[in-house]
């Protein structure tokens, strides 16, 4: 199966950390992505992680991968109001060639 | 260009009318993907191309939907006899297609509203 599940909504205060979680079922997935979608806009690739890694840090973003539990998380440090958006995790077997399967999306609301 | 371009930005059609959406991939990218995002944010893969050849069409509805990528022209997605449930945002993405590590770059989408 290719189900990717996320919680629908997350609300945090400005300056706090946000953690968005994702579970997937396809163990053959090689690349796992986090995309950001602002209202009325397209998809912005935030970061990605290969399945042979368990952590990746990129400025305020930290991605954790637990391959055994098929669990992926995105931590945003010092969350800002500009981080308010919908965040999608996604998986693919091959980033350049194969379709990407998206999660259901988590709407992040940052309260000033 | 350096971005995936999609036209039009918005498209309104009456039920039963035809809709045609266009996508210009990033220059030098040989793979093009079409995705449909319906109202509850759910993304559905439709079809992908390697240059002008269909690469994966497993998500493409059997009826009414067709797509092309012809040389020296934008790729297109066409819906014949649109239905209300075709209302969605249609995203196009492109990738270099040279490696598993390539990522797909998404366009801004075309919002199709079927009345």
Provide an overview of this structure.
The complex is a heterodimer of chains A (112) and B (115). Chain A is mostly beta strands and 112 residues long. Chain A is built from no helices and 11 strands. In chain A, strands 2, 4, 5, 9, 10 and 11 form a 6-stranded mixed β-sheet that branches. Chain A has a 5-stranded antiparallel β-sheet with strand order 1-3-8-7-6, with no helix packed on it. Chain A is globular. The mean pLDDT of chain A is 90. Chain B has 115 residues and is mainly beta. Chain B is built from no helices and 11 strands. In chain B, strands 2, 4, 5, 6, 9, 10 and 11 form a 7-stranded mixed β-sheet that branches. Chain B has a 4-stranded antiparallel β-sheet with strand order 1-3-8-7, with no helix packed on it. The termini of chain B are far apart. The relative contact order of chain B is 0.34. Classes of the chains: A mainly beta (112), B mainly beta (115). The interface between A and B is medium-sized, with 24 and 31 residues.
What gross morphology of chain B would you assign?
globular
The number of E-state strands of chain A comes to 11
Main beta-sheet annotation of chain A: 6 strands, mixed
Helix and strand element order of chain A: EEEEEEEEEEE
Any idea what the radius of gyration of chain B is? Answer: 13 Å
Counting H and I runs of at least 4 residues, what is the number of helices of chain B?
A: 0
Shape of chain A: globular
